[in-house]
Amino acid sequence: MSCDVNGSMEMGVGNAANLHLAAATPVITIPGSITINQPAEHQVTRVAGHFYLDDVIREPLAYEDGCLLVPDGPGLGIEIDEAKIAKYRTG
After folding, report:
1. Is 67 helix (H, G, I), strand (E, B) or coil?
2. Which tens digit of pLDDT belongs to each residue from 26-36?
């Protein structure tokens, strides 16, 4: 059965995980839709589904020809901005 991976308004960490899942699972063959979120200071586009004004990843996810690229660094391929975690902590 063919499947897809669609985002549910995740931020960068969740989107990175979705991209890795889609790339690693052979039955994911149907294009999906994942929102483009980005750190406030590194805006890469003003087009697409922006649901948040900021993100806790240091660099925005890269995309090319309308497709998000799978991050290729260690782990999920993203780096967390610890200062933003502290800034947005609520407890």
Report:
1. strand
2. 998 888 777 76
